[in-house]
Amino acid sequence: RGSSKDGLRRLKRTLTNTFSPVSPAQLRFDFVHEMRALSKLRHPCVLTVMGAVASGRTEPILVTELMHYGSLYGLLRNATLVLEANVVLPMLCDIVAGLRFLHAAGVVHGDLRSRKVLVDARFRAKIGGFGLSQRQKVGLPRRLGPWTAPELLSEPAPRTTEASDVYAFGALLVEVHTRPVRPAAEPPEASDSDEPAADTP
Q1: Would you kindly state where each structural domain of the chain is located, as residue ranges?
Q2: Is 111 a catalytic residue?
């Protein structure tokens, strides 16, 4: 039990240090320690981490459960899919439940957005991307967008908090309500390393 708490404390410190550049060696070291802590975070509304690969010349790879519909970001932009309230509301409740669990465990997500929410075959949502989401690219700060709380833009050394996570959830609510084709602040990406690939419906 003590080891688990220590791991979560280390994870919390790492996740809240959002704008510090890191070397590839430090990134790999942090990855191993973070994955050990993440593997202990089990909740129906949090993406289950099943394993990780952090050896060889390839970038660290996270192994998670399969999420049939991929990210909520892609789901919202699927023009052929009708999302009724009886489908959307449970997904939003799932996000709230997952975020409450993370905060209760002392973990600040710091990068909550539709790309970091995954949807399974039953249209239930799970929060992902809270491990190395702060350090998607070595030496670069995390991605900014409409989900970024104002205080993170004005402070010289910003640190994400539970409050900034709540702000990000508010921005996600607007995105779900409007279902934009593509927000100008977040251009399409060739890949998103911590977003599991969707199974073909």
Answers
A1: 2-178
A2: yes
Higher pLDDT, 92 or 38: 92
Q: What is the mean pLDDT of residues 55-83?
A: 86
Q: Which of 111, 120, 165, 194 is catalytic?
A: 111
* Spatial contact of 133 and 111, defined as CB atoms under 8 Å apart: yes
Beta strands in the chain (DSSP E): 49-53, 61-64, 117-119, 125-127
Q: What is the DSSP letter of 56?
A: S
- What is the assigned CATH class of domain 2-178? mainly alpha
Surface-to-core class of residue 42, CB atoms within 10 Å of its CB (0-12 exposed, 13-18 middle, 19+ buried): exposed
Confidence of residue 40 (pLDDT cuts 50, 70, 90): confident
Q: Are 114 and 195 in contact (CB under 8 A)?
A: no
